[in-house]
Every structure is written in C-alpha cells, then in structure tokens.
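Question:
Now give any protein.
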Amino acid sequence: MTKTSMEPISTSGPTFDQISAAIKAWLGANNDFLCHFLAQEENWLLINRDLNGRVRLVLPDHIQDSTERGHWDELAAKLMGQLGPHGHPDNTAILFETDLEHARHGASCYPMNGFTNAWMADRLATEANWTHITPETKGATRVVFFSIKGGVGRSTALAATAWHLAQAGKRVLVLDLDLESPGLSSALLPPERQPMYGITDWLVEDLVDNSDAVFDSMIAMSPLSHDGEIHVAPAHGAAHGEYLAKLGRVWMPKLLAGGTREGWTVRLSRMLDKLETRIRPDIVLIDSRSGIDEIASACITELGANLILLFALEGEQTWNGYRMLFEQWLRAGVAQQIRERLQVVGATVPELDRIEYLSGLREHAYEVFVDTLYDELAPVKLGRRLDGSWKVGELSEGWSFDEADDNAPHAPWAVHWHRSFAGLRSLQGRLAVIDAQELQSIFNPLLEGVHNIIPTEKLS
C-alpha cells in the first residue's frame, strides 16, 4: 500500500509536546506509592527536563542507599521507557541531591497537581521565566504596555497616557524596554533633550560595577510635562555608540563575590528601584517588547506590575498568542497570581464598523479568558475599584465574569485609529499641539483606566 501525504509518519518515540501527558500517566499509575512516599516530611520528588528536553528524576540523597532504591529504579525505568528519546538511560535516570532548593535552582518550576512536594523543573536556554510571578509592587504604581504582535500602536498609546497623566499633575517615569526596537523616547523627547545614555548602557556598565558612571545621564524630562512631570529612561542615549554590541550583553548575569550569579531580570529590577528612588514617581509606564521573549517575560512577571495592558488586534494570531501564554500560567499553577492584573486593550480600532469590530474582539477575548483564567462557576458582575482591586460579589466563590460585563478584564479598552496619528514623523511634535479633548476622543478608556489604577492617596 502506498503512503499518502495525509498519513502520519512513524516516529521512534513521543514528541516534546507528549512529555507532560506521559509524566501525568506515570504519576497516576503509581499514585499510592508516591502519595505515601511524599507524605514523609524528608521526602520530595523533582522531575527535571533538561535543555535538550530529556527527563530524569531527582530524589533526596538519603534514598540512594535506602531499601526503597530498587523500587525507584524500577519506576524510573518504566517512565524512561514511556518517554523514549526524551528519557535518560536506566543508569542515569535518577540523580540524588541533598537539598531541594539547590536541585531546583535556575529552573522554571511548578508543582505537580495532586501531589505534595512533587515538582516539575524546566531548564531553559534563556532566562525568560513566565512562571515566576513577582508580587505586586507596594511603591509607585507600575503599568506594563504589552502586545503579542508589533505595529499595534502600543508605544503611541503609552506616550499619550504619559501626556494625560502629566496634564493631571502626576509625576510619570517612562521606561523604553523595547530594547531591540527602540523609539519611544523620540515620542516624548525632541533630539536636543535626549540624554547621553540609556537603559542598555546601565545594564552593560553594571556588569563591571560601573553603572554610577551613566546613571545621572540616562534620564531626561519631556517638554510635554505640563502641570506634572514626564521623566524618560530611553533604550539608548543620544549617541547610541556600539548599540548592537551592548545589546548582546544586556542579558548577561552578573558574577558576584563568592561565585554566585545575579540574573539580568534581577539587575533590571534593581535599576528600576534605583530610578524610582531618584524620581519618586506616582506611576511608572513600561513599554515592553512585543512577543514572548526574555524582555516581555521580565516586564510582565518579574517587575511587580500592578496593571498589565494586553494590546490586541482582532485576529487569530493575537488570540493564539495570548492563549499560549495563559495556558502556560494555568499549567504552572500561577494563573491566580497574575490574572487580576490583566486588561485587554483594543488597539487601533478602525473608523468603520467600530461596534462590530469591538464586539468580535470582546467575544474572542472572552473565549480565551474563560478557557484558561476564569474559574468554572456562574459569572457575577464585578468591577475594578479606584485602587485597582476587583470588587467581588457576595455570592461569588471564584473569579469569573459575564461576557457582557464592561468591567471585566476581557472587555477591551478601545483605542481608536485616527488619521492624525498615522504615519507621523514626529509624535512628540503632534503631542505638543494636541488638546485634551482630542486625545480623549481617541484614548479615553485607556486614559481613565490607567489613571484610576493610581492609589487614591496619590490622586489628591
């Protein structure tokens, strides 16, 4: 019989996407033994997936010479047999460590559902860690502007938001963390106001303990400041220098005394803390790089953001991207730590058929949220308080929303496309002459939403 192009091609074993299912099946088949083993305080299990996608077990060191060792060898051999090329040979299928934290160090870890003290550790080639959610900051409000795809008007919306907040008398700190495609600073600073250095300079100099040499010259105040102030930390300075060479080093961990390493996301957080100490802003607006990479991971999960704006165009690419991200949080058991900070923004809503467009955007956003982040219960009408927290109805025992709820995170804050912002050579020049009424006609839901996230004591 001749094979057709529609017939599956045989393989020698399961693929990467089938690893998790094989592990869950193995856990289920050995549930009684594992529950008894893990119920003992000194015991734990780490299922380690290495950089090549191969899996092995890591167990406490005292198991190595115990009477249980033989049974563990048998269990490991069964799992490795199910994993095929994604397993390790029998004689290397188990590692022994004295300390769980040491065994988990440097990995993206999440608990195995249904088991106490059982963890999955994923070793990644990059430091992007979407499953480590830093608690919300208690200092200045931090708002991240993020999109799955570029070209959605995210940076323009951020600049307009900074303008609006400054009009209201707020002190605003803006960070251009779209390091691989910088440009936000030109939207808020004319050429003569550009600072000498930028964020890339600080991150590179910090590697050799020389960040103080650039810190005082990496921030500039925008002439759009009005009654408040807009302080801008650009991706690079007025003279960008060897920018590509610097960009290739910003992700580097810093070697500390004693041989320990400080990851680049920790260094980034330290830089932001230092900027906030200097500027003392009411709010920090962070322009994240689009896509699912290290910068986006740091901005969304590592900087303690209070509000994460998910810019969205109506289309399959947008919702497939957000679904992948939400599913990762769901699998890792961290969805509850971040979902209340999310808000969809309808980007560049077209002039024609706006109601129909926003209706489709809401519908597809709801489908993704209800499949991943919302709890499975009858939705109730909730709303966001002025301090940014969500009001929960008395009858609610979970976190869910009706599709038609305008206060839900899936209900898009509309940003309307406007010809006056299309193809601009100088956004800074456009903002210099725009009036508040015109800006609100384009960005009003976004402007109000961000303004309301600032705690009440900072609004007085």
Notes: Confidence is low (pLDDT under 50) at residues 1-10. The two ends are 79 Å apart (CA to CA). The chain has two domains: 17-122, 141-458. Residues 354-372 form the longest helix (19 residues).
